[in-house]
Model the fold of this input.
Amino acid sequence: MTVAELQAEIIRLKKEKNICILAHAYQGHEILEVADYTGDSYGLSVEATKSHCSGMIMCGVRFMAETCKILNPDKRVWLANPAAGCPMAEQLDVQGLRQLKKKYPGYAVVAYINTTSELKTECDVCVTSASALEICRKLDNDKILFIPDPNLGHFVAEQLPEKTFAFYDGGCPRHKMITGQEAENAKAAHPNALLLVHPECCPEVTRQADYVGSTTGIMAYAEKSDAEEFIIGTENSIVEHLQFSCPDKKFYPLSVSLTCMDMKVTTLMDVYNCLRGTAGEEIELSPEVMEGAGRCIRKMVE
Ligand code: 13P
Ligand code: SF4
Done:
């Protein structure tokens, strides 16, 4: 089958089975083309609450499929490729969190959505890169334990000097590898380009950026901007998608090594096989996790 034939078959099957396909923006272009919704983690969570389909396939990583299931307890949700996990989501477990809570009594626990559902059961509220600042600002508690990404945490904390923050030493293994020197070098190589970066990058990088935002935020900024050249400081599929949607503008990767192999593990064939029922994993969570993590995720969506 050619890619076009496979895509046509996926579209036929998803209509026949009343299943919608959600794809994170880091997926390949051929997957985005068959998706009903594409976007960042926040957009996927919101969209998951609106869908009228009887089932959903997540093309992204495990915590995204779990979020989808928690927001849709009566629907069947599949992760297109069960091997797709986010290493950051596994960095802190419940025992580790309990120790941190003892160290920081009275702090509100704010969990980045890139965490396991089990961990979310012990947190106060969930945030995504697109919603973290607003949610932390609106929290009644002015002491915040932000887990597990200290880069996103510091980005938020710098804008909320009236609040006290504590962090965990985790973070995205891909984004945090980018150094301030690399950002300087990229700006020197492309002096007319704007630097757009994800808040999972370290402060030495975000402080040099013209815009810091979620994957969808970066794409929207570049699409609307009058500028013609951009250095993109997030997963390199965003460079590809932007070059496709804005052929007259120029996009440069901040680092050629900014590739998330976990996001890239899902293929079009996985989506097809998941729809046929021969691949993928149906997400099943215990009632305790559905309830506990649901409280934390629904608070974010609200
Ligand atoms: P977004 O919130 O921008 O989708 O980011 C998720 C992610 O995993 C970035 O590495
Ligand atoms: Fe996780 Fe980083 Fe990949 Fe995002 S880019 S899914 S945070 S490993």
The pocket of iron/sulfur cluster (ligand 2) is lined by residues 61, 86-88, 114, 172-175, 200, 235, 260, 262-263 (CB under 6 Å). Residues 3-17 form the longest helix (15 residues). The chain has a mean pLDDT of 95.
